[in-house]
Amino acid sequence: MRFCTVINCMDGRVQIPVIDYLRRRFDVDSVDSVTEPGPNLILAEHRNHDLVESILRRVTMSIDNHFSVAVAIVGHFDCAGNPASREEQLGHLRDAVLMLRRRVELPIIALWVDERWRVIEIPVD
To answer: Torsions phi, psi of 108, nearest 5?
Structure first.
């Protein structure tokens, strides 16, 4: 069985669209979910060290135990945990990906879920 890992918002509206997208994108059977409200903001700002380390421990558990093939970080429209504009959240996604790339040696992608609950992959250089 093949896995990938997602760091997703706890908002239930984004769970199924993101899981469906990642199963197709990485040709995996299952998606391990690490959820927090507004995880792109949490990882981008890195203000709460304990929470960031908790997220990273859960990602590492997925990688080590399920041999995850990739990691995704998600931001979305109408997020209670990160009520910033789309543009600001895209910046948070970019910063979160860059931080994760320093800690995780797997492909890492950024996803935006829009107002129609469509998943859009955001390029990060």
So the answer is: -125, 130
Handedness of CA 11, 16, 22, 23 (dihedral sign): positive
**DSSP codes joined into one string, 34-45:** EE-SSHHHHHHH
Are the beta carbons of 37 and 10 closer than 8 angstroms? yes
Reported residue count of the chain is: 125
The set of residues, in sequence order, having a beta carbon less than 8 Å from that of 54 and lying 6+ positions away, is: none
Q: Which amino acid is at 21?
A: Y
The number of domains in the chain is 1
Is the separation of the CB atoms in 7 and 55 below 8 Å? yes
pLDDT digits (tens, 9 = 90+) for 70-106: 999 999 999 999 999 999 999 999 999 999 999 999 9
CATH code for the domain in which residue 41 is found: 3.40.1050.10
CA distance 112 to 73: 9
Q: Quote the CA–CA distance of 62 and 13 in Å, as a whole number.
A: 23
Q: Give the structural domain span for 104.
A: 3-122
Which pLDDT does position 125 carry in this prediction? 79
Question: The pTM is what?
Answer: 0.96
